[in-house]
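User: Please check token order:
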Amino acid sequence: MTKKLLNALTNLIIDKDFQALSTRCRATSLFEMIKFDENRKSDALAWLLNPNEGHQLGEYFAKALLNYAYSCATDYQLEHMPQLHNLLSISLSNISVMRELAIKLSHSDKGKNANKYIDIVIADAAQKLIVVIERKDGSTAKNNQLANYASWVNDHYSDWKKIFILSDSENRNHSDEYDERYVQIDDSWLSDALLDLFERGFLTPQQEYQLRDIHDFVFIGWDESRDRYYKNLDSIIKRLANSHSELLRELENPAITIENKRYSWIEISPTVYFSQILPNAAAFSKSELNVFELIQLHYGIFEYVHGYNEFDVFDDKLKRLNSHIRTELHSDYVDFSLEHHLPEEGRWPYGIEVRRNDDEIISYTATLWMSKYADEEYHVLAESVATRFDLEFKRRKRLSKVLCSQLTELDLSPGSVLYTHILQVLKKLEEVTLDANK
């Protein structure tokens, strides 16, 4: 079995798609290796906002932030902020940008947690201007922090011009914790500011590399479509996983146990190989050691491909077949249904399942199912679908009907068995919608 696996693994490695991934599945920036949480993103943002830092772009980012904040401010907020035309006419080259500014709240001076920390504070003593920035990346405001920070600033800088900003990359609803003095913004201003710099073409190579990394890996997220070299990365991975799905499934199954810890073969990284495999080499056959060596040599690619299978390509084909389809991908099956029939969250009233059968010969079965485990408001829809396909719930909560089985591949080409059945079912499901609107 291991020799067969070794041959399959060798065929995978010489696959042209695998070779194409060998130069793409690697970190091109140190930033890819770093987890940028709220604190580190705040550090990066403070560095950009500081006109005297090494980006050598002066007050460009500070002005871009303030312009965007004013464009997002409510009438109430604008009344309490300095006039924008006055702000734009002054230089911000002498501002101080501070991270984690420690403050002591007056109502808790003697309390255990009296010290609080404002994420970013921009201050200019000459202009008597102070800007408070609270940064959020996936979390919400808590413990009345927004109100406390604003009150502290008002108490201690009563005659200064003040701007309060809630910089939330996900633009979340902060509910009762939100303070109306804060202008809530997302990161679109930063993306626009950076992309504008790139388009102008006057940055030095060092500046552009540096700022592109900040754009792609810290704030906005890398998009392969913007880089020709990486444009088809996702497609290559899916195509490779589809072509070698059986091998990848075998590599992903837990296969070896060392010191009571189980490893799937696809997880054999250089760290595992040199710390766990080689010191215990006597416990493995020569063929197994050859497999382990090949996997760790190409671990960077296997790390990308891990978790993909033939259903990823099938998922793309389904969405091209009908743009109104919503899918749920799993390791051995995919569920899909019409988007407008489904709740935003919770169980579906019906779906089409295409499942892999792991028998001696791999095959696939397509099944239509209806369920009353969905919320009660969707029971009528489930019953309508059942009626359309000559089924009755009676006392049952779930019904199913096999559409086709013993399929040797997930073929969605026009005229194929699976294509024909899916189109027929989708047509009937659309008719359920028409019936409901009569």
About this structure: Residues 417-437 form the longest helix (21 residues).
